[in-house]
Amino acid sequence: MAWNLLFTSDIGLLSLFTILFMIVMAIYIARYAAKQVNKEEVKPVTGPKQGVH
């Protein structure tokens, strides 16, 4: 009954679309964040130069 309501009614289809959209957005944000973290790890850390005043 619940599956039938999910796939056949307007509210069910809207709910299904919302659930799928949230899953896709979570995957996108997680991949984007992982790329940004990896980019920060690769960048060399430069500090102030020693001995030059």
UniProtKB/TrEMBL annotation:
Q: Which Pfam families match?
A: DUF3149
Q: Transmembrane ranges? A: 12-30
Instruction: Write down the InterPro entries for this protein, in alphabetical order.
Output: DUF3149 (IPR021494)
Q: Which UniProt keywords apply?
A: Membrane, Transmembrane, Transmembrane helix
Put simply, this protein is called DUF3149 domain-containing protein
Tell me the organism's taxonomic lineage: Bacteria, Pseudomonadati, Pseudomonadota, Betaproteobacteria, Rhodocyclales
